[in-house]
């Protein structure tokens, strides 16, 4: 019945004139003073390449120090600092043996760089359905693993939603899948008290400005396996300077792979490493502040019958740097009207059901470079899925104002949908 109302226009005019929110949803916190000081000192030397530091003179590069510090933070033995999160993913896949002819499973709720990394490694992405909680669907995952002959699962913790990792690890072991975790949105998240990204052969993190550590662009790849990380370090373009890495396996493991591993350069430079290091001790505090803001808004939305919020599995702690909610049963025209009404009141929502890609928001059917397969459950979930960034510059009062705006506009539109549905029922009864 909701679909019957979909052809009917909904007014883009907000139901309420006030309040208006004037904050910037993409605003970043200033970097710590120590980050600025280190960057300035580096610029004065001009020594921005990570291999300029000479261990023979007792020098350790900023990138090497970052690798050691991030490995400890992530709870992994090894870390590699690279140019971007997408590069980290592609490097992990190549180091795991993915290439032409390899099929790699990945969830259908993700962003374009994830299938892009699979394609960059020469492999073929196989998209898997998601469930109502925006996690990969385990039943479809098992079926696709059997049907496709895939040997790898690239598990994207999209928007920081950490699934039941234990169940996924068990399935990967049963199906013979190599697990690689995409933690671009999950840096600082936890699974059963341990950092997300502890369970795969590799985990890739992003330090792009919209993530949880900010170097503009950048990535960090972590692992425990000596040979896997040896291949990753060589792939990143270490030449013969692998002894200048801060959390690398023993050199013998790296030398074993030198002749067979191509150089696909994507190193992180000293400047980005310098501005990242002072941010590592701030991560836990950022997570706590994000989650506090997120929960103010989510609690208000949870009271609305029209809204469905994803529920994390027991043991998962995500980072609330963004908020997602669905409006099951709403016609697409009403969702579009909500996006516009919220925008006019200063609240920026991204809609994964929009007919065209917009900015960072797109979905699987818009990626023509990815093999198309039917994903009906995912399509219906994404049709009414809305996404909102949360800036750390927001205050709790800001979060309450955002929540009020969303509640008012959702409530008004939901009432209109119900009235239209009631009218259609009465028309049917009259005709009957």
Termini Cα gap: 17 Å
Order of helices and strands: HHEHEHEHEHEEEEEHHHHEEHEHEH
**Rg computed from alpha carbons, rounded to a whole number of angstroms:** 23 Å
How would you classify the helix and strand content by structural class? Answer: alpha/beta
Number of domains: 2
Strand order of the largest sheet: 1-9-8-5-4-2-3
Extended strand count: 13
CATH architecture of the largest domain: 3-Layer(aba) Sandwich
Q: How helix-rich are the residues, as a percent range? A: 25-40%
Outline the biggest β-sheet. Answer: 7 strands, mixed
Q: Low-confidence stretches at least 5 residues in length (pLDDT < 50)? A: 1-6
Give the integer mean of the pLDDT values: 95
CATH superfamily grouping of the largest domain: Type I PLP-dependent aspartate aminotransferase-like (Major domain)
- Write down the CATH class of the largest domain: Alpha Beta
Total number of helices: 13
Strand content: 5-15%
Shape: globular
Could you tell me the CATH topology label of the largest domain. Answer: Aspartate Aminotransferase, domain 2
């Amino acid at each position: 019945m909701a679909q019957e109302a979909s052809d009917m226009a909904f007014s883009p005019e907000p139901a309420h004139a006030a309040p208006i929110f004037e904050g910037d949803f993409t605003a970043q916190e200033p970097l710590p003073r120590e980050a600025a000081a280190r960057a300035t000192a580096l610029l004065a030397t001009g020594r921005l390449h990570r291999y300029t530091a000479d261990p023979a003179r007792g020098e350790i590069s900023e990138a090497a120090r970052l690798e050691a510090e991030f490995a400890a933070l992530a709870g992994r033995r090894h870390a590699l600092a690279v140019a971007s999160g997408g590069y980290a993913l592609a490097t992990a896949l190549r180091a795991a043996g993915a290439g032409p002819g390899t099929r790699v499973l990945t969830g259908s709720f993700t962003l374009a760089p994830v299938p892009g990394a699979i394609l960059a490694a020469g492999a073929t992405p196989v998209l898997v359905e998601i469930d109502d909680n925006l996690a990969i669907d385990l039943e479809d995952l098992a079926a696709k693993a059997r049907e496709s002959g895939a040997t790898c699962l690239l598990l994207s913790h999209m928007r920081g939603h950490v699934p039941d990792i234990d169940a996924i690890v068990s399935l990967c072991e049963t199906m013979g899948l190599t697990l690689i975790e995409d933690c671009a949105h999950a840096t600082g998240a936890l699974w059963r008290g341990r950092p997300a990204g502890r369970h795969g052969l590799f985990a890739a993190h992003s330090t792009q400005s919209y993530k949880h550590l900010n170097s503009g662009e950048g990535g960090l790849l972590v692992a425990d396996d000596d040979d896997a990380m040896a291949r990753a370090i060589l792939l990143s373009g270490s030449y013969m300077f692998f002894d200048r890495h801060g959390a690398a396996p023993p050199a013998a493991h790296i030398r074993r792979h030198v002749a067979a591993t191509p150089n696909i350069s994507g190193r992180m430079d000293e400047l980005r490493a310098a501005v990242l290091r002072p941010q590592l001790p701030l991560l836990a505090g950022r997570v706590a502040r994000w989650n506090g803001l997120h929960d103010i808004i989510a609690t208000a939305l949870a009271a609305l019958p029209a809204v469905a919020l994803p529920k994390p599995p027991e043991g998962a702690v995500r980072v609330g740097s963004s908020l997602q909610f669905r409006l099951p049963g709403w016609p697409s025209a009403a969702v579009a009207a909500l996006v516009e009404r919220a925008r006019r009141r200063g609240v920026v929502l991204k809609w994964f059901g929009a007919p065209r890609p917009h900015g960072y928001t797109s979905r699987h059917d818009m990626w023509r470079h990815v093999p198309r397969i039917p994903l009906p459950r995912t399509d219906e979930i994404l049709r009414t899925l809305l996404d909102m960034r949360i800036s750390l510059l927001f205050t709790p009062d800001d979060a309450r104002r955002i929540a009020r705006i969303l509640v008012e506009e959702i409530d008004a539109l939901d009432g209109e949908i119900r009235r239209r549905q009631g009218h259609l029922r009465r028309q049917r009864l009259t005709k009957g």
